[in-house]
Structure formats: structure tokens, C-alpha cells
Write a structure and sequence with these properties.
Blueprint (H helix, E strand, L loop, with lengths): L2 H13 L11 H14 L12 H15 L4 H5 L1 E4 L2 E4 L12 H11 L6 E5 L5 H9 L4 E6 L2 H14 L4 E4 L14 E6 L14 H4 L4 H4 L8 H13 E11 L4 H10 L3 E6 L8 E6 L2
Helix pairs in contact: 1-2, 1-3, 2-3, 5-6
Bound molecules: S-adenosylmethionine.
């Protein structure tokens, strides 16, 4: 069978799947081609490429898994985050393309400093911290997460990519070395922000495959971790240092108010022009 026919079949299966959120045009086609490339072992194929029986079997098994809602990155075992191949493992939040904008905002600010220090709170598999140090080699970067599993994956990513980063287990800033207090230039945060009652409304592919603690802090408005972070961050940031928080557009206004209430200055809501699914709220420490 050729690649074109296989992709057409797979697109039909994925489009019919109730476990997938069909929010983006051509999403199924993009994913089918991505998985076929993974099964063949190269992205360099066209519709006429003959697919071996082994690769076809691998591809069909992957499409079956995807049709049950499993994210493509978990099926492949990795995600590409700002050009870095980072591990994607069950139990750890899958890094999203939309979060690359948060990393970009951090890189922009870290670049301006001579000896920059960045802390990525709720780091998951460490993608943001690793992207920053990859792009600004003189930066010292730290990542912290309450999940020991996430920190294991983040450390494995750092080793695999040969990037210097320190990852620690802890509740928000709790596990960080004390000498960082007052000297951090940028704090990034992509928190769990789904309100407790909204958890069950999430698409199945998120609800079933992402652990609940990565999605929600179980507070009624989903903002407990944001509020705690804005209260705790000023003790770690240098005066004028930046706190950058990624949330969904419907949370942007509330997070902006939290930052202003806590005394942050120059508070703004920024948006990736290509990717409109998230906002990054930025503010300078009092
Ligand atoms: C939405 S995920 C973001 C992961 C990663 N930063 C990313 O963008 O791919 C939220 C992360 O917050 C972590 N988390 C939840 N509660 C936390 C807490 N109290 N302190 C630190 N991390 C926490 C979860 O384990 C999860 O890795």
C-alpha cells in the first residue's frame, strides 16, 4: 500500500474518533502524516511512497492508539519543543507547541542580562528551562515540580540533551536553593489552572491522559497556584525581575488582576500571533 492511501484511511479513523478534540482544521491529516513518518523512520515521503508491511503494521497500531485519545507525543515517546527533542512519558504533562511562546518570552528577557538566572516553576519535563539554557548558554536555569516523576523526566532530558539545568522536587519555590532568593531574573509558570468543576468538561484526550494534578489545583476558580506563586515570587525575584504566567485566554483577565493586586508592575497580557490558544501574563516584581 502507498503512503497516500494509508494516510487517507487513518484520517477517516481519526475524524470519526469521539476521544479526539477536533478543534484544528487538518489536525487529523497532520497527525496521520506525523505518525506515518515515525513508523517509516523518515519524514521524507510522499503519497506514492511504498510502505513496507512492517511499517504499515506499526502505523496502524499507532493510529488505533491515537483514535483512543492517546496524545501523539506519548505514542512517539517524545515531543519537539523549540527544536529540542524532549521525552514524553505517561504521568508527566505532555509539552505543548503553544507553550513555546512562554519560553520565547523568557529567552527575550534572559538575553538582556549578563549572568541571568531563570526559575521554571511547575516545570513538568523541563522543556521551558531547557529551551532557555539551550538558547542562552550563559543562563543558569532551575526547574521545580511537585511531582518526582516529572523531575525524573526533566533530569533525563537534561542528560540526553547535554544541557546544564538543575531540577528539584518541591511545592512551588519550596525546593529551590536558598541562595537564589532575591537574585532571580525571570520566573516562568505554566500552572494547572482548570477550575475543579471544569475538569469533567475537558476533552477526553486531555482528561484521560494527563494526570489531574497537572491540570487543576482543585480550587473553585483554578487560580490557587497562580495566587500562591504571585505572593511567593517577589521573595525570589530581584527587584524588577519578571514573572511570566501562561494560562488559557479565558483566565487572562483574572490572572492580570491577581498580578496587579500583588503589586507587580508593567502587567500585560501577551499572545503568540500564530497560536491564539493561550496567553502569557507578564509583570515585574515590586
Ligand atoms: C500544566 S503542567 C506544565 C508543565 C510544563 N511546565 C509544561 O509547560 O509543559 C503543570 C505542572 O504543575 C505541576 N504542579 C502542580 N502543583 C504543583 C505545586 N504545588 N508545586 C510545583 N509544581 C506543581 C504538575 O506536576 C505539572 O507538571
Amino acid at each position: 500500500m502507498n503512503a497516500g492511501d494509508l494516510v487517507d484511511e487513518a484520517v477517516k479513523t481519526l475524524k470519526a474518533s469521539p476521544a479526539i478534540d477536533h478543534w484544528q482544521r487538518d489536525r487529523e491529516l497532520i497527525e496521520a502524516e506525523d505518525l506515518l513518518g515515525h513508523a517509516i523512520g523518515t519524514e521524507d515521503f510522499d503519497r506514492d511512497t511504498e510502505v513496507s508491511p512492517g511499517a504499515r503494521r506499526r502505523f496502524e497500531r499507532m493510529i488505533e492508539r491515537r483514535a483512543k485519545g492517546e496524545p501523539v507525543q506519548l505514542i512517539k515517546g517524545y515531543a519537539i519543543f523549540r527544536g529540542l527533542e524532549v521525552l514524553a512519558r505517561p504521568g508527566v504533562f505532555v509539552p505543548r507547541d503553544s507553550t513555546e511562546f512562554l519560553a520565547e518570552q523568557a529567552v527575550r528577557r534572559v538575553r538582556r542580562r549578563r549572568q541571568p538566572v531563570l526559575v521554571d516553576v511547575a516545570t513538568g519535563g523541563g522543556g521551558i528551562a531547557l529551551a532557555v539554557v539551550n538558547e542562552v548558554r550563559r543562563a543558569r536555569v532551575y526547574g521545580t515540580d511537585i511531582s518526582p516523576e516529572a523531575i525524573r523526566v526533566a533530569r533525563a532530558n537534561a542528560r540526553k540533551l547535554r544541557l546544564p539545568a538543575t531540577f528539584v522536587v518541591g511545592d512551588l519555590f519550596g525546593g529551590l536553593p536558598k541562595h537564589l532568593r532575591g537574585g532571580v531574573d525571570v520566573v516562568t509558570l505554566h500552572p494547572p489552572y482548570v477550575a475543579r468543576s471544569e475538569l469533567r468538561e475537558l476533552p477526553e484526550e486531555i482528561r484521560r491522559w494527563e494526570p489531574a494534578h497537572t491540570l487543576t489545583d482543585r480550587s473553585p476558580d483554578g487560580l490557587r497556584i497562580v495566587e500562591r506563586s504571585t505572593t511567593e515570587a517577589p521573595a525570589w525575584l530581584r527587584p524588577g525581575g519578571w514573572l511570566l504566567i501562561e494560562v488559557s485566554p479565558d483566565r487572562a483577565r483574572a490572572v492580570r488582576s491577581v498580578l496587579q493586586r500583588t503589586g507587580f508592575r508593567d502587567v500585560r497580557s501577551t499572545m503568540d500571533r500564530g497560536f491564539k490558544v493561550t496567553r502569557v501574563l507578564v509583570g515585574r516584581s515590586p
